[in-house]
Amino acid sequence: MIAGLRATTEGGADLVQLLTPEGERVHHPDFDIEVTPEELRGLYRDMVLIRRADREGNALQRQGQLGIWVPLLGQEAAQIGAGRAMKPHDMAFPSYREHGVAWCRGIDPTEILGIFRGTDHGSWDPLAARFHLYTIVIGNQCLNATGYAMGQRFQGKVGDDDGEATICFFGDGATSQGDVHEAMVWASVYDAPVVFYCQNNQWAISEPIERQTRVPLYQRASGYGFPGIRVDGNDVLACLAVSRWALDECRHGNGPVLIEAFTYRMDAHTTSDDPTRYRLSDELEAWKLKDPIERVRVHLVKQQWADQEFFDSVQADADELAARLRDFCVNMPTPGPERIFSEVYAQESPQVRAQRDEFLDYMAGFADAHAGGEH
Ligand SMILES: Cc1ncc(C[n+]2csc(CCOP(=O)(O)OP(=O)(O)O)c2C)c(N)n1
Ligand SMILES: [Mg+2]
Predict the structure, then answer these.
(1) Interval between CA 132 and ligand 1 midpoint (Å)
(2) Do 261 and 204 belong to one domain?
(3) Using one digit for the tens of pLDDT, what is the confidence trace for 13-68?
(4) Which NCBIfam families does the annotation name (predicted)?
(5) Do β-strands 257-262 and 194-200 pair in parallel, antiparallel, or remain unpaired?
(6) Domain extent at residue 344
(7) Kind and range of the H or E element at 248?
(8) Ligand 1 atom 20: residue of nearest CA
(9) Are residue 319 and residue 343 in the same domain, yes or no?
(10) Based on the domain organization, do 232 and 356 belong to the same domain?
(11) 252: exposed, middle or buried (C-beta count within 10 Å: 0-12, 13-18, 19+)?
């Protein structure tokens, strides 16, 4: 079915917004925050840089350097707002599209490339970065996050300003998975300090939000017994404010919280997908007017919080990042196939050693043997 221009371009009366698509600052009775010009410039820079990294990832896939790419285009505010709301000791569990949150956790975008080139599962240490590895199995990370958050609670790590919180990222389609339901039940009855952060980007590959729910997703929280908030997912200030509030609730022992970041997937689901097969371009055009970066740029200019020199320097940083990513990607070594024997088990066993030796003997039988080399 091709969907028409749907009501889902509007978030409704409950939508928390602090910066309109036109770049006007508006106020909210519950979730207002003040940011300095420097902070807002920082959020702008984050969004521009991660969008640029995302576009480069897409281009690298098109040029055969990556097997697949998962674009975040359009979801920069939802991710940077939530990522920048986290304190250093908070923990995040992503799905596979959270390049912006990874950025906020200090993970260099080069570390994501191996996942989509098929050479590793992510090269960062999840505990050190306080950012778990990407999860492709839809909704599964909500169970992991809930288990982790229950541990935070049982170990007495919640209760005051220094408490810890967990945030879990998933999509609108994921809300139809049993894992997400189970996670919310467990989180609720154990008061787990977990923020369920649903990026409702209106689509689960080709399935529209109408096929996931008859009620706005944030309202489902009441069925589990915790608060649910719908935030303008294209408004980085609102995402920052609501996420900060929700994480603070959790660290003080008042979790869980559900946040529905109402946003839009501007590009294809992945580079393997062609969205023109199932959605009309007028929907995309309507969402382009709500671009998360443009409204911050307009606001910075209107407030005279940024000059041309600043915008030029961000552009130069983005160009440099893109060049660095490209350089890293085209020079990435291809690991030898024997790595499967050394990196699956923590400790070598006699059986695995024997299988490895047999495999290496076999590979050595080829004239242009590839085993053991980087090509
Ligand atoms: C358990 C499981 N079922 C199916 C898939 C295939 N799949 C990959 S992405 C996706 C859609 C997810 O949509 P949503 O949760 O809205 O997240 P989005 O991709 O829009 O960020 C599906 C069904 C999968 N990865 N895991
Ligand atoms: Mg989705």
Answers:
(1) 18
(2) yes
(3) 899 999 999 999 999 999 999 999 999 999 999 999 999 999 999 999 999 999 99
(4) PDH_E1_alph_x (TIGR03181)
(5) parallel
(6) 339-371
(7) helix 236-251
(8) 204
(9) no
(10) no
(11) middle
